[in-house]
Design goal:
The complex is a heterodimer. By secondary structure, chain A is mainly α. Chain A contains 8 helices and no strands. In chain A, about 80% of the residues lie in helices and about 0% in strands. The termini of chain A are far apart. The mean pLDDT of chain A is about 90. Chain B has a single domain (about 1-215), classed as MetI-like fold (Orthogonal Bundle), CATH 1.10.3720.10. In chain B, helix 3 crosses helix 6 and helix 6 crosses helix 8 (about 130-160). The chains are: A mainly alpha, B mainly alpha. The interface of A and B includes residues 62, 162, 165, 185 and 226 of A.
Chain lengths: ~230, ~220
């Protein structure tokens, strides 16, 4: 095994944690946004539209900087003396905020594609609204949203590397550190890239498993040609 | 703030330059590789897939670092004409962006070609049109018409990707903003300016694509 393999493995672990944390945060927020959008309030919908457009149009790396330095400025004001958010939490917050917008778009698309008549049909069969949601609507929502969400997860995994710029020692930063110490950037960046490839490939297999499970009692979706 | 605004035009120009170069050079790769992926089968097809697999499976940041810091280690590159590209931060950033965009767009072009009805190729061959002619005259124009919306997404990704050039000392929009935030510790002053400029550039790019889509639309579609 090359030197620093253990360090890179630890870095890969932090990368995964960062990705999972951001994904949970983003999915929760996106679900809240989706529920809020059902209120059909003009101000809420306007806010969501502006949020989604703005945050998807600016580079993630800039959002990460703003979150980290912005949080430091605010926390210092509150605290009285210098204080900052840990790079990990700044990363989860920044990537979470960005991917909230992307996940919201995916969830909304899936929700709108699920025929509304099914709610009424379920109620006429004597189901409560909750039952109808969990037994009828939700499985279809998942089936429709899963390809988009899987894609987002793969993008998110790669974007976690940007958090290295605020000093979080995840896979990217660990590769940089090893490259610096051993004076061998070519090898260590390739080595780090190999870890990313492995995580991506493993994710794809896992997501295929999830998708098979979600779709096991479902007919394949008829995709409209675009 | 004045110093920031004095440097802003130069930074915006760098961002636009990196984005346009990366996008169009990437499209050149995608055009060739996407077509080749469509025409090949089996072993050769799998070989061609390695490049997009690797570049879509790893972060742009690490690709940039391999090209800028890693390749500089190889003596052969340092002594050859290749050093013009690998030796300069801008050359490395352009190359990394190009290869990254090329990988993603190749798969888009390949997908666009694959989704066309099979009967068209058979019909052309029945009319005695060669395979290459069919690709150029029949398949590619249709595929690109369908692909335009996806390609407009791709140029936004390129724009956002160009911000990573700031990590290898390039003073484009993000690099400039980052420097001034670090200098003054007032992120809330500079960040909105940079954000607005990115939004404006993205808006112009999307409008350009929309115009192109309208111009290329077939009657009745």
């Amino acid at each position: 095994m090359p030197d620093y393999t253990l360090q890179l493995l630890i870095g890969a672990g932090i990368t995964l944690l960062l990705g999972l944390g951001s994904a949970v945060f983003a999915l929760t927020m996106a679900t809240v946004f989706l529920l809020l959008a059902q209120l059909k309030n003009r101000f809420i919908n306007g806010f969501i539209l502006v949020y989604s457009t703005v945050i998807r149009g600016i580079p993630e790396i800039l959002v990460i900087f703003l979150t980290f330095f912005g949080a430091a400025v605010i926390l210092t004001k509150i605290n009285g003396s210098y204080a900052e958010l840990s790079p990990f939490f700044a990363g989860v917050l920044a990537l979470g905020l960005v991917f909230t917008a992307y996940s919201f778009e995916v969830l909304r698309g899936a929700f709108e594609a699920t025929p509304k008549g099914q709610f009424e049909a379920s109620q006429s069969l004597g189901m409560s609204r909750t039952q109808a949601f969990f037994h009828i609507i939700f499985p279809q929502l998942m089936q429709r949203a899963l390809p988009g969400l899987s894609n987002l997860w793969l993008i998110l995994l790669k974007e976690t590397s940007l958090v290295s710029v605020i000093g979080l020692e995840e896979l990217m930063r660990k590769s940089s550190l090893a490259a610096g110490v051993k004076h061998d950037p070519l090898f260590y960046y390739f080595y780090g890239a190999l870890f990313y490839l492995a995580i991506t490939a493993f994710s794809e297999i896992a997501l295929k498993g999830v998708s098979d499970r979600v779709n096991r009692h479902m007919e394949p979706l008829k995709m409209e040609r675009t | 703030m004045q110093e920031f605004f004095a440097n802003l035009p130069e930074a915006i120009w760098l961002t636009v330059k990196l984005t346009l170069f990366g996008f169009f050079a990437g499209q050149l790769i995608a055009f060739v590789l996407g077509s080749c992926l469509h025409l090949t089968k089996g072993f050769l097809h799998n070989i061609l897939r390695i490049y997009p697999f690797v570049f879509r499976g790893t972060p742009l940041l690490i690709q940039l670092f391999i090209i800028y810091y890693g390749v500089a280690q190889v003596g052969f590159v340092r002594d050859s004409f290749l050093w013009i590209i690998f030796g300069s931060a801008q050359g490395a950033a352009m190359l990394a962006l190009t290869l990254n965009v090329g990988a993603y767009s190749s798969i888009l072009v390949y997908g666009g070609l694959k989704n066309l009805p099979k009967g068209q190729v058979e019909a052309s061959s029945a009319l005695g049109i060669g395979r290459l002619q069919t690709l150029i005259r029949i398949e590619l124009p249709q595929a690109y018409r369908h692909l335009l919306p996806s390609l407009s997404n791709e140029i936004i990704f390129t724009l956002k990707g160009s911000a990573l050039a700031s990590t290898i000392t390039i003073m484009e929009l993000t690099g400039l903003t980052r420097t001034f935030i670090a200098k003054t510790y007032s992120p809330f002053e500079y960040f909105p300016v940079a954000g607005l400029v990115y939004l404006a550039i993205g808006f112009v790019a999307l409008q350009a694509f929309r115009t192109l889509e309208r111009r290329l639309r077939l009657p009745g579609h």
